[in-house]
Design goal:
This protein is mainly α. It is built from 5 helices and no strands. Keywords: Membrane, Transmembrane, Transmembrane helix.
Length: 127
């Protein structure tokens, strides 16, 4: 039995990571503490879906940059619940949960793989 799928590329890895990231952010939006956090998680999930559609349509520089931006938004969103808790005088450790940390890891991987793929697409010399 042969494996005709070809080599694993940055585009394939990004596709899987963006699907998982969007799913995690949708789950976080439904379990969010307040409407602001739910809206922000919904926006990050939408950004992941839009960048996924761009990536599937064409895997050029702007699509890879959109993937990196969507992942960066997700990484930045990881800090928002803690900052909101501190601003409201609550315990800042209450926002640390497995889903949020999983989203952070997925979004960080999206950024890193998108930057690698972007450098390769732009023809940057290898070291």
């Amino acid at each position: 039995m042969s494996d005709d799928r070809g080599p694993v590329t940055g585009r394939r890895i990004l596709t899987v990571l963006l699907v998982l990231s969007a799913a995690v952010h949708v789950r976080l939006a439904f379990g969010a503490v307040g409407p602001v956090l739910a809206g922000l998680d919904g926006l990050v999930a939408a950004a992941a879906v839009v960048s996924l559609l761009l990536l599937l349509r064409r895997a050029d520089g702007p699509a890879l940059l959109a993937c990196a931006v969507a992942g960066g938004l997700g990484v930045a969103l990881f800090l928002v619940p803690g900052l909101l808790a501190v601003a409201q005088g609550r315990n800042w450790t209450a926002w640390l949960d497995a889903w949020a940390f999983g989203g952070l890891l997925l979004d960080a991987m999206v950024v890193r793989i998108a930057v690698f793929a972007l450098r390769r697409a732009e023809g940057a010399p290898r070291r």
